[in-house]
Task: structure prediction
Amino acid sequence: MHLRAISLVAKFEQGGGRSHIKEAIDLDRKALQLCPPGCPKRSVSLAYLARHLRSRYQRFGATNDFEGAIILDREALDLCPQGHPARSASLNNLAVGLFTWYNRLGGMKDLDLNREALDLRPQGHPDRSVSLNNLAARLYNQLGAMEDLDEAIVLEREALDLCQQRHHDRSTSLNNLAVSLSTRYNQLGRMEDLDEAIVLDREALDLRPQGHPDQSVSLNNLAVCLSTRYDQLRGTEDLDREAPDLRPQEHPDRSMSLNNLALRLSTRYGLLKRMEVLDEAFVLDREALDLRPQGHPHRSMSLNSLAICLFTRYNQLGRMEDLDEAITFDRGALGLHPQGRPDQSMSLDILAVYLSTWYEQLRRMEDL
Result:
């Protein structure tokens, strides 16, 4: 049953329909029923069903699929005590699930699961690259300090070195390292980080052709990096890349697609000075904010983007309500940045500019 389910999921992930993944999950559930508590193969059946529920969640975004996968992964881990050959895989699966759930809903997560999984996969283990990538992803997102980001990049470089040209995880390793390098560029402004991120994003995109479930991720990431480099170097070829695809309604990552497309449009506005381009960016940022309610880990990103759009429009049209709303949004973003995070200084800088502009119009000393 599991072999048939794996084959169906492979078809689904290569662009197949809902019927493929449904049949696979139905087969996994039947296989699990044949492995009651106490059966030595039960942990394997739990892992397959959890993995395939996550695959369906990534395409269609059904919350109950992901919640079910986490429950199954927890049970599978309980069946793999210390010394069990499948313990590292179970630790890794549960850690991935908890981190993804954190990104969706916010909240703390535990690095210990990932460190233990990595310890169980020493040099030469075929899945060491997976554990390296997962630990790297959690380091900076949980702790937020530059040394954590630097450590994440070191881990991701090792993971990429372990994924040769035809390795099935190579595109993931390329993507993860590119994201970390672009994040470090945003903090330190080193062009070599941004240039390397673009090279990596292009290679990842080459490995994710039309129909690949993660193609839109690579398109988005490459578009953002090219737009950022355009801002620095004014190379028009960077703006002529394919626009990122918007993920469908109800997809858990739609807000990120909206945010990235809005950023690209804002960059185009800087080049063309056409108000309709800026207005479209504003509409996309508004929709992204609606998909990021209080408690969402990326809400501050949308608040910042909206504030920048409004301030840009104020500079063109002189409407005080745009400036007033920009200040409101930036205050909201500032309130969401933990003390000491690098993003906090950016929000402080931007808010100071907005208040200074407000003072120039109204001459209120409290603004100055």
Summary: The domain at 249-368 is CATH 1.25.40.10 (Serine Threonine Protein Phosphatase 5, Tetratricopeptide repeat). The chain has three domains: 1-106, 121-245, 249-368. The chain has a mean pLDDT of 78. The radius of gyration is 23 Å.
